[in-house]
Amino acid sequence: MSDPPRRALVASPTPSAQTAMRDLADADDWVGFEDADLVVALGGDGFMLQTLHAMLARRRPAVPVFGMNLGTVGFLMNDWRRHGLAERLLHAREFRISPLAIAVTGMDGRVHQLPAINEVSLLRETRQTAKLEVTVNDRVVMPELACDGILVATPAGSTAYNLSAQGPILPLGSALLALTPISPFRPRRWRGAILPDKARISLRVLNPAKRPVSAVADDNEVRDISRVDVSVDRARQLTLLFDPEHALDDRITMEQFIA
């Protein structure tokens, strides 16, 4: 019989998450994050993203994460319950996601390699409208987009900033990306595109000295950029665990019916 998975318990610094962490202190023989075969994360969606980014930076291969919501929305989390954790983990449903691989080139020529789980967004830094050139698979599809910004969202991130910017909700497993403008001015009626996740997307800043733009990959920002190249990093996968009755793909489907 194989040994049971070694589990780590991590929590947001908020009082509610820290209280829950103390409540679960005796629920398992917890190990450190680097040594775990499975991670239980207590907090909200922001803390889940933080945990998943830590998973990408982990020296050992990524392992599944089971989140319990002690934040506000908890879209990426399961319900918080103090009892029955071992049984829930035994029956949890796996869902795998691949992050975006983002190469951000600054005006100084430096290239920053960043991952993103939800989205990468380009945002104007001043009152000047951003002007961007959009390229898909080495073909310029929009020579000039005047806007406050633009974002590329994964299905897991399509209900976050992307949805607030009037972008489409993408079902998990759809193998799609959302390319969504933020307050577009010209062409004013362009509302974005849905692209296969095999697409290579390049966003070039036109006249970056006069119209500076920053790039934000989840919560990592690079200012004064000249170009962003985006693709799905298929070599890296993250695994989220959900209660069978509260799976992420079901939640994304139901978001489409919320007025």
Describe the structure.
The protein has 259 residues and is α+β, with helices and mostly antiparallel strands. The protein has 2 domains: 7-98 and 237-255, Rossmann fold (3-Layer(aba) Sandwich); 100-232, Probable inorganic polyphosphate/atp-NAD kinase, domain 2 (Tumour Suppressor Smad4, Sandwich), CATH 2.60.200.30. It has 5 helices and 17 strands. The strands form 3 sheets. A 6-stranded antiparallel β-sheet has the order 6-5-16-13-8-9, with no helix packed on it. Strands 12-11-10-7-14-15 form a 6-stranded antiparallel β-sheet, with no helix packed on it. A hairpin with a 2-residue loop joins strand 14 (213-217) and strand 15 (220-222). The radius of gyration is 20 Å and the shape is elongated. The N and C termini lie far apart (50 Å).
List the helices and strands and how they pair.
Layout: E1 7-11, H1 15-23, E2 38-43, H2 45-57, E3 65-69, H3 85-91, E4 93-97, E5 100-106, E6 111-116, E7 119-124, E8 130-136, E9 139-147, E10 149-153, H4 161-164, E11 176-182, E12 193-196, E13 201-205, E14 213-217, E15 220-222, E16 225-232, E17 238-242, H5 248-255
